[in-house]
Amino acid sequence: MESSIIFIFLSLSLFSNNCNFFSQVHASKYNHGKVKFKLIHRHSPKLGKMSGTTLGPPSSSRERIKQLIHSDTARLRAISHRLVPRRKNFQVETLRSSNLVELPMRSAADIGTGQYFVSFRIGSPPRKFIMIADTGSTVTWMKCKYNCKTCFDDRIHHHERIFNPKTSRTFIPIPCFSSMCKQDLARSFSLQKCHRSTSPCAYDFRYSDGTKVLGIFGNDTVIVRLTNGKKIKVPDVMIGCSETIVGNFHDIDGVMGLGFDQHSFAVKAAEKFGNKFSYCLVDHLSPSDLVNFLVFGEVDDSTLPEMQYTELFLGIVNPYYAVNVSGISIDGEMLAIPSYAWDLKSGGGFIVDSGSSLTHLVEPVFNQVIAAFQAPISKFKKLSLSVGPSEPEYCFGDVGYKESLMPKLEVHFADGAKLTPPVKSYVIDAAEGIKCLGFVPTRWPGPSVIGNILQQNHLWEFDLLNGKLGFAPSSCTFDD
User: Fold this and answer.
1) Looking at 72, 134, 253, 283, which residue is catalytic?
2) Are 422 and 455 in contact (CB under 8 A)?
């Protein structure tokens, strides 16, 4: 049965304010399962075995943390450049649905765009791609040949995955003269030039590390598999066909945009499955048979304790997902952190980001947290990782270390919810014989970022309709 879903958008482009528009879309309700994607961490052995990638396990635990720090540094730089407080971009109104779509995820990119990969099928007939699943990106794009005759010829010769939209009967380019190109996609770096009325809408992404990606926008059909085995189509998903890539991104096929924007895959897929998506991340060092996952729809897991919910700020700091943190306690004692550090309107606040590994705290927060750990870690020999800038500042030898010696950290939300991560999520294994506090300082003013290591062993549910973030401890192994 078809049911109408109304989206009310309050548009705010890079160059204009207060531009209201309304759009009505139709979405089918699926009552026979859920969609689940596996998420593959960048250091998973599975990833290194896939053609077209050279990612996988690093040569040592020290190299592992070095790679994560390198990615985090670029990630935080990109967040700082893009994060400008703004009014709510759009709201979602629809009927609730208990349907679910699940996708497995794994951790991935080197240039700060994300940490987890997902298998993604697009086009008619569908082609499979290994994409970064990124909550900080709004555009879904892949390596592609459209008008360029020589693009990626060397890659095609080695049977790598390159999308050719001209072979997909459902691909429709977005015209460059359209308001979609000139206005709606301005935040996505669409180009305003239009040589011919038949030319497609072009884009030019520039990343903070100097990488640039050029291509054209279009719409195509994505194929997802319900957990009952049935395949369904998600039509009219906006994608980027990237024909020129200068810089990094050599080891990936593209990016799945999970940020908050009306054109992102997260919003497009969630609208069909109750306007919710969730992910669950196991420990980075867990055995490879334990799987991270990304779900579209309602997760019904009887083994979960009661979910806690807190307000999710949507459209305030697009495309990121911001939350209202009110304090941090150590062993039950609230730290003396100034209230302005939590205030989004004052240039602070917190973002929940699956693409950052460590947790980045602005200096007023970081200094208080570290001071609270000084006594327990002073019992151990202070060491240095020596893996470059932005490394954890507080590392120590693990001789005689026990988790019970470390204080309990809790993150408190303004509406009463409380995140209590396991000790291993904030006192991390950094190298052989070395533990580190998993916090990195970042400059004030700016946002603090709850990274994916602190999020591990929890289910995180993003309710886009009601503006709520739910979370609960989880082994990430619930049945399909």
Assistant:
1) 134
2) no
Q: Which residue has the tokens 């884009």?
A: 203
Q: Buried (b) or exposed (e) across 409-430, using 16+ Cβ within 10 A?
A: bebbbeeebebebbebbbbbbb
Identify the bridge partners of residue 77 per DSSP, sorted by sequence position: none
What's this model's pTM, rounded to 2 decimal places? Answer: 0.80
pLDDT digits (tens, 9 = 90+) for 341-399: 999 888 889 999 888 888 999 999 999 999 999 999 999 999 887 666 666 779 999 99
% of the chain residues with pLDDT over 90: 38
Is residue 58 exposed (0-12), middle (13-18) or buried (19+ Cβ within 10 Å)? middle
Task: Evaluate whether 293 touches 103 at the Cβ level (below 8 Å).
Answer: yes
353 among known catalytic residues: yes
In the structure encoding, which two tokens stand for residue 261, read together?
Answer: 């924007």
Sign, CA dihedral 243-249-251-254, equals negative
Written as six digits, the tokens of 222 are 């994505």
Question: 311: which strand partners?
Answer: 468
At 265-310, the pLDDT tens digits run 999 888 888 899 999 988 766 555 567 889 898 877 666 778 899 9
CA distance 417 to 385: 35
| Phi and psi, residue 71, nearest 5° | -65, -45
Could you read off the pLDDT of 94-135 as tens digits, one per residue? 333 334 555 554 333 333 445 688 888 999 999 999 888 888
Catalytic-labelled residue, pool 283, 353, 429, 463: 353
Q: How many other C-beta atoms lie within 10 A of the C-beta of residue 140?
A: 28
Going 402 to 404 to 405 to 408, the CA torsion angle's sign is: positive
Task: Kindly list the structural domains of the chain, giving each domain's residue range(s) and its CATH number in brackets, ordered by start.
Answer: 35-85+97-297 (2.40.70.10), 308-473 (2.40.70.10)
In terms of residues, how long is the chain?
480
CA dist 52 and 154 (Å) reads 12
